[in-house]
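Whiteboard transcription, Tuesday session. T.W. wrote the structure tokens on the left side:
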């Protein structure tokens, strides 16, 4: 337990000391590879992205690698996100527990812009097109230090492409998850995208480092009804601080509804979603959907706002 407390204290120290220098920059669009900040998994997004202290499924590979200890056996997840302006964002992850060693995982993220019309100064449209995309591959590890405290980390390889130009870099996530043992309260913290600048077209650009801390609690767990609530605070190096909050209701552990809100976002805040679970021959399959209202940024049309669909298999 003492070791767990020491690591928790170290993470807290990094969270509050590092921003002193990193956030001295003007916090307005000062970082690159913004796709790293797009949330994955329809379940987590439906809960307002307040998932750092929940992190109990394989999407913990993205939200908080310390939560991978909640994966019992093997788990595979995939999600597809129809993002804004005809862009797409996809996530694939796999995690497996090894007795005596801990939980290992691998994940991939792809962000695609599609075809862009080429323009040149003084000419305008050239009639040609070019593509742009971003890619991330991550290796994760998580382990329980005590029955209530776990730590985890992810090493990321990042690649970004636009036309004939490309950039590459490395980053890391480090997270903790602590079950207080009091009224089901869990505490989660994570540092995401910690690393050096990424060089793009001859210019060094900082990574979008984000510090997150959250609290989750089971508000109801009786008979066929289960309700979980979560709240999370974020401290990015390139924008204002935000607050995420959300809840999830399960009926008979088969059907779920979710609702969330993201406070202090320029583009809307309301999220919602639902999910279904099926037990199939000793395995569990879950299908989830979420919708994000981007407010005035995208307008009132339902189809213009981001929608995610995700599937998870635990076996």
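and on the right, the sequence the group agreed on:
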């Amino acid at each position: 337990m003492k070791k767990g407390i020491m690591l928790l204290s170290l993470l807290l120290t990094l969270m509050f000391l590092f921003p002193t220098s990193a956030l001295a920059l003007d916090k307005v669009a000062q970082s690159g590879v913004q796709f790293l900040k797009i949330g994955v998994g329809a379940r987590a997004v439906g809960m307002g992205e307040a998932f750092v202290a929940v992190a109990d499924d394989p999407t913990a590979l993205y939200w908080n690698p310390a939560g991978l200890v909640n994966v019992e056996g093997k788990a595979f997840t995939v999600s597809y996100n129809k993002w804004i302006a005809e862009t797409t964002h996809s996530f694939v992850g796999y995690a497996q527990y090894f007795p005596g060693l801990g939980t290992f995982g691998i994940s991939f993220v792809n962000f695609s812009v599609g075809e862009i019309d080429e323009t040149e100064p003084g000419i305008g449209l050239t009639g040609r097109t070019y593509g742009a995309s971003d890619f991330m591959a991550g290796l994760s590890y998580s382990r329980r230090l005590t029955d209530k405290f776990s730590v985890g980390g992810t090493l990321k390889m990042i690649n970004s492409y636009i036309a004939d130009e490309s950039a590459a870099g490395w980053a890391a996530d480090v997270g903790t998850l602590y079950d207080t043992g009091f009224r089901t309260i869990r505490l989660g913290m994570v540092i995401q995208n910690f690393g050096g600048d990424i060089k793009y077209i001859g210019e060094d650009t900082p990574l979008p480092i984000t510090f997150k801390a959250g609290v989750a609690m089971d508000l109801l767990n009786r008979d066929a009804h289960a309700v979980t609530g979560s709240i999370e605070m974020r401290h990015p190096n390139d924008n204002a601080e935000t607050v995420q909050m959300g809840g999830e209701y399960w009926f008979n552990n088969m059907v779920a509804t979710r609702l969330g809100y993201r406070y202090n976002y320029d583009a809307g805040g309301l999220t919602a979603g639902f999910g279904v679970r099926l037990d199939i021959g000793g395995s569990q399959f879950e299908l989830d959907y979420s919708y994000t209202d981007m407010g005035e940024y995208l307008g009132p049309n339902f189809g213009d706002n981001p929608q995610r669909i995700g599937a998870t298999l635990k076996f």
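Someone added at the bottom: The chain has one domain: 2-116+129-314.
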